[in-house]
Amino acid sequence: MESLMHVGFRVRVINPNSRFKSFKSPSIPMDARRNTVTCIRSQQSGTKDGPLIATATSDSLVEELKSKDWEIGVLKDEIAATQGIRIRRRPPTGPPLHYVGPFEFRLQNEGNTPRNILEEIVWNKDTEVTQMKEIKPIYTLKKALENAPPSRDFLGALKASYLRTGLPALIAEVKKASPSRGVIREDFNPVEVAQAYEKGGAACLSVLTDSKYFQGSFENLEAIHSAGVKCPLLCKEFIVDAWQLYYARTKGADGVLLIAAVLPDLDIKYMLKICKMIGLTALVEVHDENEMDRMLAIDGIELIGINNRNLETFEVDTSNTKRLLEGKRGETIRQKDILVVGESGLFTPADIAYVQEAGVKAVLVGESIVKQKDPTQGIRGLFGKDIAG
Predict the structure, then answer these.
(1) Is the dihedral angle over the CA atoms 341, 344, 345, 347 positive or is it negative?
(2) What is the pLDDT of residues 231-255, one digit of tens each?
(3) Has 175 been annotated as catalytic?
(4) Residues of the chain with CATH 3.20.20.70
(5) CA-based max dimension of the chain
(6) Among the options 198, 285, 291, 367, which is catalytic?
(7) Annotated catalytic residue 143
């Protein structure tokens, strides 16, 4: 959190008897900012220009709420950092304007640049979700779910496929593009791709819903669900708010992805409860030892995905799966009867055999099959045989 250690602010005094006056303070340490704000408040009784009159306006109240929301976000980042989470949920500079009584001050900080692509995606998602929540308040989503059909058993479908084929169950990803590869499939029709996957023996489907970085959409998820595809559907999204769980469920999702690199333990626990309540299966994704240990300490997790791609650097190492399943971690997973999904860097039957030997019972694969002219044949090529029932 070193980016929060030194900040400056710009203050504007609101006085009915004089024009706005502004000045810029020198940069001050973070631990001194609270004292500075306290001093400002203590001086609100008046100035040399006359008494101050704090008139409450709707704009100021909105900005104050945004400021409070930002402060909560900073606190969450501090808690997350103690758990080894490096991804900040939002820019440390916060909203552009803040209010302290009649004072308005603007934080200025050079730390508002994302450290990596995952942090950039998360910051964008935080803004996107905030806007969507205003358009579709959560009570409207809960109301819509009252008449929604029951979700399909995502975890059960994976277990059934594994028992039927003796090979890792396939979660086939409906994916047009990615930040690391660009456009993967030009002639992209999500429903046709989904149907080809189902024909090829996929147990479940993963549907990208992020539009800015993956060219996905919730419309794709909804279209696949409405087309009669029987495979349970995973909403592949960057979840940063519980609101997204309800929204995904209204769009036909049977499961959601929760990323341990982004979400603190408390958020994971809270979202697991909501998932269970509204009928969603949670695929909890880890990519290193610390994240795996954190998730194994949380009760109620039934499905863990090991991502061989480092989401901060996008580098891929398939040995990551084997490393995280060795020793006591592997024993704990077996004792808890957690089904493990291998993710990223899987292109050949040898890759599938490698992660299966390491202990996975399902794989999530996108690029290596979606880029094939016929995704059904792509699945056969991935497993080295026909896995369709």
Answers:
(1) positive
(2) 999 999 999 999 999 999 999 999 9
(3) yes
(4) 133-383
(5) 84
(6) 285
(7) no
The SS3 of residue 361 is: coil
The one-letter amino acid code at 280 reads L
Read off the pLDDT of residues 244-301 as tens digits, 9 standing for 90 and up: 999 999 999 999 999 999 999 999 999 999 999 999 999 999 999 999 999 999 999 9
Distance CA 302, CA 159 (A): 12
Distances (CA, A) of 297 to 266, 286, 290, 339: 12, 13, 11, 15
- Is residue 128 classed exposed, middle or buried when 0-12, 13-18 and 19+ CB atoms within 10 A define those classes? middle
Is 251 noted as a catalytic residue in this protein?
no
As its CATH architecture, domain 133-383 has: Alpha-Beta Barrel (3.20)
CA count, 13 A, side-chain hemisphere, 379: 28
pLDDT, tens digit, 9 for 90 and up, residues 8-50: 333 333 343 433 333 333 343 444 444 433 333 333 334 434 4
- Report d(CA 89, CA 108) in Å as an integer: 18
Rounded CA-CA distance 287/260 in Å is 8
Q: Which of 76, 125, 175, 322 is catalytic?
A: 175
Could you tell me which residues come within 8 angstroms of residue 47 by beta carbon, excluding any fewer than 6 positions away? Answer: 13, 15
DSSP string, 143-183: HHHTTPPPPP-HHHHHHHHHHHHSSPEEEEEE-SEETTTEE
109 annotated active-site = no
Asked if 373 is an active-site residue, the reply is: no
CA dist 196 and 38 (Å) reads 63
Cα first-last separation, the chain: 52
Say whether 207 sits in a helix, a strand or coil: strand
Predicted local confidence at residue 38, as pLDDT: 36
Catalytic residue among 220, 344, 361, 367: 344
357 part of the active site: no
Does the annotation mark 343 as catalytic? yes
Residue 310 corresponds to which amino acid?
A: N
